[in-house]
């Protein structure tokens, strides 16, 4: 009986230790600031595929250019929030004094930033189930590295992006830009650059 009484006192003390929530301190879930990212479904079984004469991603922190490339779009309700590309390409990270060639590349960004960062010359829709199958195999591994919730896409904030580069010199590298900061992680060598 003594233990039950002690437990009762402990529960009362615990319940009364929290300050009451004042109406002005309640969270307005409908009007949260833009720091909240949305989760959106991707139709993995229906990835559209394309070829292009050139595909360019350009920002102050990262430059990428692919010629005669193939790519799939990662589409969500908000629009295209990513791409996976195969083809001969060059990249540079000016502030890290890094550059090289790559064979494969993934972009994840806010769909509203496509005109800010991308230039795609002569895109042509194609129906290549083999290319889509290869893309899905690679994406199954690398998609989970950035802006994801399981197999759903998290939409990055405007101006933020993550890139996965399969480089001739570095192997598999992840480049992330968010809130004015850039990070480069060599996934192959498991170290930050």
Task: Summarize, please.
The chain is α+β, with helices and mostly antiparallel strands. It has helices at residues 2-16, 114-117, 129-142, and strands spanning 39-40, 49-58, 63-76, 79-93, 98-109, 118-121, 124-126, 148-149, 152-154, 161-167, 171-178, 181-186, 191-192. It contains three helices and 13 strands; from the N terminus they run αβββββαββαββββββ.
Which helices and strands occur, and which strands form pairs?
Blueprint: H1 2-16, E1 39-40, E2 49-58, E3 63-76, E4 79-93, E5 98-109, H2 114-117, E6 118-121, E7 124-126, H3 129-142, E8 148-149, E9 152-154, E10 161-167, E11 171-178, E12 181-186, E13 191-192
Antiparallel strand pairs: 1-9, 2-3, 2-6, 2-7, 3-4, 4-5, 5-10, 8-9, 10-11, 11-12, 12-13
Q: What oligomeric arrangement do these chains adopt?
A: single chain
Major sheet attributes: 10 strands, antiparallel
Taken as a percent bin, the fraction of beta residues is over 45%
Q: Please state the structural category.
A: alpha+beta
H-E string: HEEEEEHEEHEEEEEE
Overall mean pLDDT score?
Answer: 82
Please tell me how large the radius of gyration is: 23 Å
- Give the total of beta strands: 13
General shape: globular
